[in-house]
Amino acid sequence: MRYLLLLVVLMLVGCGRARHESAAAQHYDVRGIVRGFAPDRSTIDIEHETIPDFMPSMTMPFTARDAKEIAGLRPGDAIVFRLEVTAKDFSISSVKKIDPGQVQLPKLIESPPATSASGRLKEGDMLPQFSLTREAGEQLTADTLRGHPTLITFIFTRCPMPNFCPRMSHTFAELQNAIRSGSGALAHTRLLSITIDPEFDTPTILKQYAQQEGADPKVWSFATGNPTEIDELTKAFAVYRQTEGGTISHGLTTGLITPDGKIAKLWRGNGWIPQEVLAAIAATED
């Protein structure tokens, strides 16, 4: 099932000409600049070039199949590497230093500053006001969510990496099944995926994506908005998002909102599982 979901996402961006396909994985030869490391050096942050017909240039963390290959690297080093993408994961190998002049990155375009949703949200805070547009064209505001527990996450439809947006959408699909067969607060819970790529993810694109993910519009909505509005929300939820002229660098945050509009729980990254959310939803009834 996960393999099929990945194929659906990949169909949105076509077939990569730099890709060497096998039954188990796709492979891409990529160049980029090292931007940092996790504290334990378990991952390396790389600003990579656009991978033709697969994904735009962005800065994101990668796991090396052999940690020794990245042991001697430093921020600012130019590298070439082999990216392997499977239905469940992705990693890099064959990492080599190259001349920085060989790496072609888009010119930096600063994201507009946030205005109304100031400060990083914490559990117990009220959800800030916003005005977005659903995939079907209706307006969506914070008040629209009142009366139901709502799980909010951030994605973009062109994100092909299985551990990022596709994983969030797959997990939301699992939660949708639980909601449709659940009772009490769970049965009243709603799901909301907000795009971080509003220039591309129009309501029409989001509607197509929702259909491909099997989203029930009575349970699971997708929303877009003007770039300033999206920036305000991503900064409020501490979702790292930087637009760099074709580049989308981003992190992951998912939040559970109570029926009266409070932040009940925040999950950073992609390590959470549906059972944690189900327990948090049940706790809203206490």
Comma- or semicolon-separated keywords:
286 residues, alpha+beta, OB fold (Dihydrolipoamide Acetyltransferase, E2P), seven-stranded mixed sheet, six-stranded antiparallel sheet, 5 helices, elongated
Descriptive overview:
The structure is a single chain. With 286 residues, this protein is α+β, with helices and mostly antiparallel strands. It has 2 domains: 17-102, OB fold (Dihydrolipoamide Acetyltransferase, E2P) (Beta Barrel); 131-283, Glutaredoxin, CATH 3.40.30.10. Helices cover 21% and strands 29% of the residues. The chain contains 5 helices and 15 strands. The chain has helices at residues 2-13, 165-181, 203-212, 227-236, 274-283, and strands at residues 19-21, 26-37, 44-48, 58-62, 78-85, 90-97, 131-134, 139-141, 150-155, 190-195, 220-224, 241-243, 248-250, 253-257, 263-268. The strands form 3 sheets. A 7-stranded mixed sheet has the order 8-7-11-10-9-14-15, sandwiched between helices. Strands 1, 2, 3, 4, 5 and 6 form a 6-stranded antiparallel sheet that branches. Strands 12-13 form a two-stranded antiparallel ribbon. The longest helix has 17 residues, at 165-181.
Short summary:
This protein is of the alpha+beta class and 286 residues long. 21% of the residues lie in helices and 29% in strands. It has helices at 2-13, 165-181, 203-212, 227-236, 274-283; strands at residues 19-21, 26-37, 44-48, 58-62, 78-85, 90-97, 131-134, 139-141, 150-155, 190-195, 220-224, 241-243, 248-250, 253-257, 263-268.
